[in-house]
Write a structure and sequence with these properties.
GO terms for molecular function: allantoicase activity. A hairpin with a 2-residue loop joins strand 2 and strand 3. The protein has 2 domains: 165 residues, Jelly Rolls (Sandwich), CATH 2.60.120; 150 residues, Galactose-binding domain-like (Jelly Rolls, Sandwich). By secondary structure, the chain is mainly beta.
C-alpha cells in the first residue's frame, strides 16, 4: 500500500461520511461501510436473515443479471481521492469477485434521485478483489469529489470502504466565518510526527469532541531526554490568532507542557507559543501574538502524552486565499 494510505479518510463516519443509498442491503446494512471501527466477526451469530456480518451484503442474484449491486457514499470531506481501500474482512464465501468505484461532484445537499442522475466518472475500473482482504487501489484524478459509488459485480459483501485523499474546501465558507486552519475537512493535515504508536496524529484534527482515548493522538512513553512533536500543514497561509488544545480522556497520560512554532513561506521557524502547562482531561485556549504569516505549525509535546483535538483559528492571507481559490477552481474545472 502506498503512502496515500496515511492521508485522511474522506469517507469516514467520524468526519461526516454517510451511505445515502444502496440498491440492495438484504443481509447486512449499507451504513456499515463507513464505520470508523475495524470490522469484527462473531461466528454463529444469526438473525432472521442469516449470519450477522459487519459490513454491507446483498442477496444472491437470481435474475441472471450481471449486476452490479451498488452503494452511494457521501464523503464527509470533499476532496481529491488518492487511493481507495475496499476491505472484504470476514467475507470469505460471499465476497464480490470484482468491484468498481465511481465519483461525482454535486454541490449543496442533493437528493438520492439527483445523485443517481449525476455525471459519474471512473475512479477504480472493474477490478478483481480477494475475500477477507484489504484490497487497495491507487486513484489517478485531479477532480474534486463529493460522493462515490461502490459497485459489486455482480453481488456479495464488503466490510468497509476507505477513500484516502486531500481535502479541497469550497472558498465560499472561508470569508467572514470562523475558520479552523488545521481541520481535516478544511485541508489541514499532519505531514510528519515523532511517534504515533497508540493512535495517529491526524486524529486530533477531526471534527467534534473526542469520543475516547484512541480517537486522539497518543504516543508511547518516552524513555529519553527528548520530546514528541507533530508538524501540521495549514489549509493555506494565514496569521494564526487562537490555539485550542484539548486533552479530553487523557487523565494519567496528558502532556506536561506544549509549545507551538510556525514555518514561514521561506522556511523560517518562528515561535508562536512558549511552553505552557496543560491540565489532564480538559480543553485549553491560548491567544497567539504574531503578525507573521505561516503555512505550517509544529506542535511540541513535553515530554509525551496524548492530544484529543487541536484547533488553530486565524486570518487567511491574500496569498492563502488565492491559493485556495485556484485549487478549488482547478479541481472543479477538471470535470
Amino acid at each position: 500500500m502506498s503512502d496515500w494510505s496515511q492521508l485522511p479518510d474522506l469517507a469516514a463516519r467520524r468526519g461526516g461520511g454517510s451511505v445515502v443509498a444502496a440498491n440492495d442491503e438484504f443481509f447486512a446494512e449499507r451504513e456499515n461501510l463507513v464505520r470508523d471501527e475495524p470490522p469484527t466477526y462473531r461466528p454463529h451469530t444469526f438473525n432472521a436473515k442469516g449470519q450477522v456480518y459487519d459490513g454491507w451484503e446483498t442477496r444472491r442474484r437470481r435474475d441472471g443479471g450481471a449486476g452490479p449491486d451498488w452503494a452511494v457514499i457521501r464523503l464527509g470531506i470533499a476532496g481529491i481521492p488518492a487511493g481507495i481501500i475496499v476491505d472484504t474482512a470476514h467475507f470469505v464465501g460471499n465476497f464480490p469477485p470484482r468491484v468498481s468505484v465511481e465519483g461525482c461532484d454535486v454541490p449543496g445537499h442533493p437528493s438520492v434521485e439527483q445523485l443517481l442522475e449525476a455525471d459519474w466518472h471512473t475512479l477504480v475500473p472493474v477490478s478483481a478483489v480477494e475475500g477477507d482482504t484489504l484490497n487497495s487501489f491507487e486513484v489517478d484524478t485531479d477532480r474534486r469529489i463529493t460522493h462515490v459509488r461502490v459497485n459489486m459485480h455482480p453481488d456479495g459483501g464488503i466490510a468497509r470502504v476507505r477513500v484516502h485523499g486531500n481535502a479541497i474546501p469550497d472558498p465560499q465558507w472561508i470569508d467572514d466565518i470562523p475558520f479552523d486552519l488545521l481541520a481535516l475537512h478544511n485541508g489541514g493535515r499532519v505531514t510528519a510526527c515523532s511517534d504515533g504508536f497508540f493512535s495517529p496524529p491526524n486524529n486530533m484534527l477531526q471534527q467534534g469532541i473526542s469520543r475516547f482515548m484512541a480517537d486522539g493522538w497518543e504516543m508511547r512513553r518516552r524513555r529519553d531526554d527528548g520530546n514528541d512533536w507533530a508538524t501540521v500543514a495549514l489549509a493555506a497561509e494565514a496569521i494564526p490568532a487562537v490555539l485550542e488544545v484539548d486533552t479530553t480522556h487523557y487523565k494519567g497520560n496528558a502532556p506536561a507542557r506544549i509549545s507551538l512554532d510556525g514555518y514561514t513561506s521561506d522556511g523560517e521557524l518562528i515561535g508562536l507559543l512558549e511552553p505552557v502547562t496543560l491540565q489532564p482531561d480538559a480543553p485549553h485556549r491560548f491567544r497567539l501574538d504574531t503578525d507573521t504569516p505561516v503555512h505550517q505549525v509544529r506542535l511540541n509535546v513535553f515530554p509525551d502524552g496524548g492530544i484529543a483535538r487541536l484547533r488553530l483559528f486565524g486570518r487567511i492571507t491574500l496569498a492563502g486565499r488565492t491559493y485556495l481559490e485556484n485549487r478549488f477552481t482547478a479541481a472543479i474545472s477538471a470535470h
